[in-house]
Amino acid sequence: MPTQFYHPRYWPTWLGVGILKLLILLPWSWQMCIGKALGIVLYNVLPSRRNISCVNLEIAFPNLTPDELAKLNRDHFISMGRGALEAALGWWGSDAKIKKLTHLEGYEYIEETIKEHNVILLGAHFVPLEVGGRMMAQQMPLHVTYRPHQNKLIEHLVAVQRDKKYGKAIPKRNIRDMIKSVKNGSPTWYATDQNYRGKGSINVPFFGIDAPSNPGTSRLAKMTGAKIIPVICVRLHNSIDTRKGYLGKYLPPLENFPSGDLYEDTKRLNKIIEDFIKEYPEQYLWTHKRYKNYADENKDFYQNYISEHTQSGCRG
After folding, report:
1. What domains sit in the chain, N to C, each tagged with a CATH number?
2. Threshold 0.85, pTM exceeds
């Protein structure tokens, strides 16, 4: 452990980590109750994030009433509260506990495809994704891409766990290692559904509104000859599906991909993610500014949208 992490500025982080490690020892149903309470607190104390989430929900679900949007927004924060405990479960939970909570759908697509092709797992930022990574890693020698955490202590602690639990963890900017992993035959999880303003960014519709998007999946598939298999991990905790735990849901490998048209390929992937979101809307990460566009210096999409929709009940 680097000595810098014993500095007093990291003591609150140590306290939080200690509490999370204790909470994941509790029964899963208790964790969900605690997570719900935490989510309600977050909903009330984070108005800026609540507004961002509301704007995204209004764009994605224009036919919902203000009351329905408000409920969905609140349910999303409850999901995020539970997600804090799920992240800890994904990082420090026992293999036995993860396995007990695992339910798989469509895993046969991986088993068949990997026999003859390299595989890229098209992911998306649903709240339980850390648990999803552990679930997938128990089934295969998974390589994952990730965005380093801003808190250096959290990044160090999580990196240690990822090194133990996964075949390899690759920082998102390390394209060379990603290509190497895929070409070597390791199934590699890759998500490009967040706002992207890097080199090669293109504006592609996401729920009908152009959003800065990353066409990297299409390029990576072309360079490696890999098949793309969409996958998400979602929480099973409602009246529709009474099973306890998490569902790892896989779709068949995409045909005719890449097509040679980056725009159409990225649009196709966005539509797949949209369909996943419509099934589990409260579990998608809505607090991210998906539509923010710095290409136009005079445009603040979120500020403009909030000003034009002041009557919405979504923001509480």
Report:
1. 3-308 (3.40.1130)
2. yes
